[in-house]
Amino acid sequence: MEVICDTKRQFERAGHRVPKIARELALIGYSDIADYITVDEGGALQVLPLDTLKKHKSRAIKKIREKTIITESKSGDELYKTSTIEFELYDKLSALNLVVEIIGIKKPLRVEHSGTINLADRIKKAREYRKNAAGSTKKKRH
């Protein structure tokens, strides 16, 4: 127990606080690729410059890789530059699954029952129990 508390204190001293962690998971979990790219008139995808992104959106980016090829014309008079960009965000499902685990949301459990349950009897017994419990509370107050 003491080791866990000490570890938690160390993480908190380093700036890891529950609200901050929740915000980071939300940023990743609800990230949208449309916040990072545009489509030009010709239908080509264009990556938005990092300095134009909405606040903190760059933290959801896992990887940006640019591959540039420069070729020379046959005559040698011109240079051509061709770039491809690989763009990847952190995994949304992993972030959302972690949130689900942390806050305790789980898929519904399937409960199977064999036999019969007489609901009318159960309800009657529950009402009698509540009535008796209420009566014993009133007696104690007087």
Provide tags for this entry.
142 residues, two-stranded antiparallel ribbon, 4 helices, 42% helix
What is the fold's blueprint, element by element?
Layout: H1 2-13, H2 18-29, E1 37-39, E2 45-47, E3 61-72, E4 79-89, H3 92-103, H4 119-141
Antiparallel strand pairs: 1-2, 3-4
Helix pairs in contact: 2-3
Characterization of the model:
A hairpin with a 6-residue loop joins strand 3 and strand 4 (79-89). The chain is α+β, with helices and mostly antiparallel strands and 142 residues long. It has one domain. The longest helix is centred in the C-terminal third of the chain and has 23 residues, at 119-141. The strands form 2 sheets. It has a two-stranded antiparallel sheet with strand order 1-2. The relative contact order is 0.10. The mean pLDDT is 85. The protein is elongated. The protein is 42% helix and 20% strand.
Beta strands, count: 4
What is the terminal separation in angstroms? 46 Å
Give the helix/strand class. Answer: alpha+beta
Strand order of the largest sheet: 1-2
Proportion in helices: 40-55%
Please sum up the structure shown.
The protein is of the alpha+beta class. The chain has helices at residues 2-13, 18-29, 92-103, 119-141, and strands spanning 37-39, 45-47, 61-72, 79-89. The two termini are 46 Å apart.
